[in-house]
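Fold it.
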Amino acid sequence: MAKKNLQTLKGFRDFLPEQALAREEMFKKIRVVFQKYGFLPLETPVLEYKEILAGKYGDEGEKLMYQFRDRGERDVAMRYDLTVPLARVVAQYQNELVMPLKRYQIAPVWRADNTQKGRYREFYQCDVDVVGSDSIIADTEIIACMAESLTALDITDFVIRINNRKILDAILKNSGIPKGKTVDAIRVIDKLEKIGEARVREELALLGIKTKGRQDLFEILNAGFEDTNDIEVKLAEYDGAGELAELVEILLEWGIKNYQVDLTLARGLDYYTSTIFEIILPDAPQYGSIAGGGRYDKLIGMFSGKDIPAVGGSIGIDRLASALEELELIKYDLVSDVLVCNLDEELEETYLRVTKDLRAAGLKVDFYYTSDKLDKQLKYADKKNINFAVIIGSDEAAKNEATVKNLMTGKQVKMKQTELVRNLKS
């Protein structure tokens, strides 16, 4: 029999226990923040009818969707993000949902993208959305929730880039963009960090923007702003300037100061309508944005026939984890607090009773299944980052005692078995 190709598909990964545990901890901390902000869980299926997802992400997104015909001859696709399925849910259940709907979802999505550093074909998104409110406060709360989620992961050095698609649309219109080419131009500007300004200028020229238009475009795109008043003054002629200034003002009220107004921020997805944002790690710029989102007031209307305002944000946990691993900021929690060693088959009943009592007290306890040399069992505990070992030999068992070894310091303490819970929890 030929040897099988024992590896994952390109862009797909396995997570061994240590990595999986770190990811679970990240999900747990993010979920706590989402719930703290009043967001409720919502789940959607992996597969959708292709027509639900088609036409929502632009030409590039269409190419990257995993799509196929199932056994029932239906054209289906794997979800590309969590936002379009949410829009379908709102349109389908709008008479049953309490508005404004505040939902979160933590789930995998799939894109047949080119793989590179921090970019995979299967990855998790941690989303929060507010549906049914056009208040700018909802926009800022999404950003505040994203920021607090990162802080909960002990990430303090990050920058929130913000913009408004209305401003970008107006700037492009003033630059002389031919009719029907605005969306294409936005996609080009979205590639600015990847391909550089010179290439972007070339591609904008191919879209029909003249030399003077390109010069004027980059003059305003590269403008800096000192405060909200400066935003309104410099962008006075553009629709969306007031919204952007108000967004900044409320972010400051939330206590968020690590923002940066960046008019080159475009967000490639077609469904954004006004506020857009991305979060980057200055110490790991090669990973691009690790979170982002914006307002999409027209998307749900594509399903329901009636526009319903919505705004959301998403943390890309896989890209974030890769960046943190490179920065050596990933924290691995302990799998177990204690290992109950197994030195004598005749003492099995004692070992199981002690294990059961420690677990009942809330401790995470591993039990060594077969009697073996103590040294081998302690090496096992060390490899699993277990801090304490409970050792009970025949002499200790006869006196209802146990020895607790601190595997970090090597110190050993003998005590009554009835004192194990109190000492190990202290």
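The chain has 17 helices and 16 strands.
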